[in-house]
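Recall that a protein's primary structure is simply its ordered list of amino acids. Everything else, from secondary elements to tertiary packing, is in principle encoded there. The following example makes that idea concrete.
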Amino acid sequence: MIRSKKMKKISVVFMVLVLIFNLMLLKGAFAQTYLDLFVKDIKVSKTIIFEDDSFDVLVKLGVKGEWEEIKESPEVIVSLFWDIPSRFTLIDSKIITVDGKNVTIKFSVNLEKKDFISESMDLTGDRYLVAEVDSGHDLPEINEKNNVFKEKIHIFSKKSTVIDLWIGKKTALINDKEYKLDVPPIIKDGRTLVPIRFIAEGFGSYVFWFSKDKKITIVYEG
């Protein structure tokens, strides 16, 4: 009778150990299957983009979950799209191996080639770059809401005028051509003051100064 009780106790302990072992295996498998990947950020290499420009797009991925429990680095597909002519007009896709908490993928975009749209389509104006990550398995709900990321950019006509000025510097650029300034831009009392005549005339306007009234009139012939 005593021996029978001991055997039952040993059996119960053994079953508990087996259950704990199986739970540990299940936890590892769950972490491997449900590693939560999402697009964290998009950075564009240029702040001013023209319709015939080339630029790079850096897509940063984030990882949610216990990374140390992942047995092997998963492969995922990261894609970059235009919002024109439809939301998911593919620019490029890359298969990458996720081997850490933060991963950055670089895409190169050449607007002059227009590989992704019709040659006759106008690119100028506000546009969106859309990045998406796809790990190839059923993702938790939180990832379904965050695995697509949009970044707004503005594409200028190549006929646009770009003026570059620097605080304290008596030279400026208009479409990369250098000009000398009578006075440089300055910061005074927390405000930035710029040479208004130079800027207005740089954009093709006429500037009139009325000393009697201390008045400035700027006329732009559109």
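The chain has three domains: 1-33, 35-156, 163-220. The radius of gyration is 30 Å.
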